[in-house]
Write a structure and sequence with these properties.
Helix content: 25-40%
Shape: globular
Structural class: alpha/beta
Distance between the termini: 30 Å
Largest sheet: 7 strands, mixed
Number of helices: 7
Number of domains: 1
Strand order of the largest sheet: 3-2-1-4-5-7-6
CATH class: Alpha Beta
Radius of gyration: 17 Å
Strand content: 15-25%
CATH superfamily: Vaccinia Virus protein VP39
CATH topology: Rossmann fold
CATH architecture: 3-Layer(aba) Sandwich
Length: 224
């Protein structure tokens, strides 16, 4: 576990595994994931590099991959069901051990903060945080990806002038984003949109939030 600046070991996530995985899912994790795991920033040399933190079911990542053919993407997720959901869309049944990763996609099944610490300076051209777990209890606030401790780490990895896109439907997290990022000299943004902007792929979490009567907010924070 990483030791963070305040000396308190902490993590962003809860469970890695939910219900018992099916045999196909077990094969995807054991046979496919190791070859798809991100290891080198140069895996798609010459292309802009994007990172999605907590991709959930993978639909946002997959649409980014399809609609931006000249971009390389690292997709980070620790929840095994989410990893399997994305892999299922890209790996034929029975080819779990033989399907190579797409040339422009790699996965990171660990804490995304450790990846950000390891990436070269100014290596990312876009960062996505779509509908993260809000960790609404005060004692869990340290698990939020948006945190004052994280801002210099994110700013180091993100090229100046490039975007950090954040979406959330949770009022506590929405207020937290404003309280944490608005005073920072490292990032700036206009007021958040209340409808999904053009070019933002939808997610299942957004659809659930809207169906439940919640109003998502969408920010584009720009690295100073």
């Amino acid at each position: 576990m990483t030791e963070w600046p305040d000396g308190v070991p902490q993590r962003l996530y809860g469970r890695r595994r939910g219900h018992k995985l099916r045999p196909r899912q077990e094969r995807l994790l054991a046979e496919t994931l190791p070859a798809w795991r991100f290891a080198e920033p140069s895996f798609a040399a010459g292309l802009p590099l994007w990172l999605e933190v907590g991709f959930g079911g993978g639909e946002h990542t997959l649409e980014l991959l399809r609609s931006h053919p000249n971009t390389a993407i690292i997709a980070s997720e620790v929840y095994e069901t989410g990893l399997c959901s994305l892999l299922t869309e890209l790996v034929p049944e029975g080819a779990e051990a033989s399907t190579p990763p797409p040339a422009r996609l790699r996965l990171w099944p660990e804490d995304a903060r450790e990846l950000l610490l390891a990436l070269p300076e100014s290596s990312l051209e876009r960062l996505f945080l779509m509908f993260p777990d809000p960790w609404p209890k005060a004692r869990h606030a340290k698990r939020r990806f948006v945190h004052a401790e994280m801002l210099p780490i994110i700013a180091r990895a993100l090229k100046p002038g490039c975007e950090w896109r954040i979406a959330s439907d949770d009022p506590t997290y929405q207020a937290w984003v404003e309280e944490t990022l608005r005073p920072s000299p490292l990032f700036s943004a206009d007021e958040p949109a209340r409808e999904r902007p053009p070019g933002w792929p939808p997610t299942r979490y957004e659809a659930k939030a809207i169906a439940a009567g919640r109003t998502p907010l969408y920010w584009v924070w720009r690295r100073a």
